[in-house]
């Protein structure tokens, strides 16, 4: 597998991971549906959220290694670190059931999504900013 394919696979996994939040938000604000198929889809996505988070951690590391040939400071590195922090907060919430951990997990998920956009659209941004 080349790094480009791994990157697109990572994007697909990330979108599936974000699926329950996006679909629930859409449903709360616009759709307001109680359709069984829709709710079952959200339930399935919630069930695979945690395992896919682990897949994203492994795939993200391999994508970065293949693309850069090792560890270097890059927008992808920042994105990857945010994935690790988001996953750690989610895992801590799952284990400890403290609401503040879930709140921070969601906040970090937003930061992660923004860092993804930076990485996707401006992958060399750090090179320009840091000289």
Report on the structure:
The model has no long low-confidence stretch (mean pLDDT 96). Helix 1 (3-31) runs antiparallel to helix 2 (36-68) and helix 2 packs across helix 3 (75-96). The protein has helices at residues 3-31, 36-68, 75-96, 99-121, 125-129. It folds into 2 domains: 1-71; 72-131. It starts with a helix and ends with a helix. With 131 residues, the chain is mainly α. The chain is built from 5 helices and no strands. The longest helix has 33 residues, at 36-68.
Summarize the SSE layout with pairings:
Elements: H1 3-31, H2 36-68, H3 75-96, H4 99-121, H5 125-129
Give structural attributes.
131 residues, mainly alpha, 2 domains, 85% helix, 0% strand
In short:
With 131 residues, this protein is mostly helical. The chain has helices at 3-31, 36-68, 75-96, 99-121, 125-129. The chain has five helices and no strands.
| Radius of gyration using CA atoms only | 16 Å
Unreliable stretches, pLDDT < 50, 5 or more residues? Answer: none
Total DSSP helices: 5
Tell me roughly what share of residues is in helical segments: over 70%
Number of domains: 2
Average pLDDT, rounded to a whole number, is 96
Percentage of residues in DSSP E strands: under 5%
Q: Structural class of the secondary structure composition?
A: mainly alpha
DSSP strand count: 0
**Distance linking N and C termini:** 32 Å
H/E series, N to C?
Answer: HHHHH
Strand count, sense and barrel status of the largest sheet are: none
Q: Which of globular, elongated, flat, extended, rod-shaped describes the shape?
A: globular
């Amino acid at each position: 597998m080349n790094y480009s394919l791994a990157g697109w696979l990572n994007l697909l996994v990330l979108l599936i991971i974000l699926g329950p939040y996006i679909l629930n938000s859409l449903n709360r604000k616009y759709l307001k549906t109680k359709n069984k198929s829709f709710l079952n889809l959200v339930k399935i996505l919630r069930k695979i959220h945690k395992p896919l988070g682990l897949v994203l951690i492994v795939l993200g590391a391999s994508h970065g290694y293949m693309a850069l040939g090792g560890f270097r400071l890059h927008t992808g590195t920042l994105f990857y670190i945010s994935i690790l922090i988001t996953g750690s907060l989610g895992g801590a919430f799952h284990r400890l059931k403290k609401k503040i951990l879930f709140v921070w997990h969601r906040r970090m998920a937003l930061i992660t999504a923004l860092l993804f956009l930076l990485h996707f659209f401006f992958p060399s941004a750090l090179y320009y900013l840091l000289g």
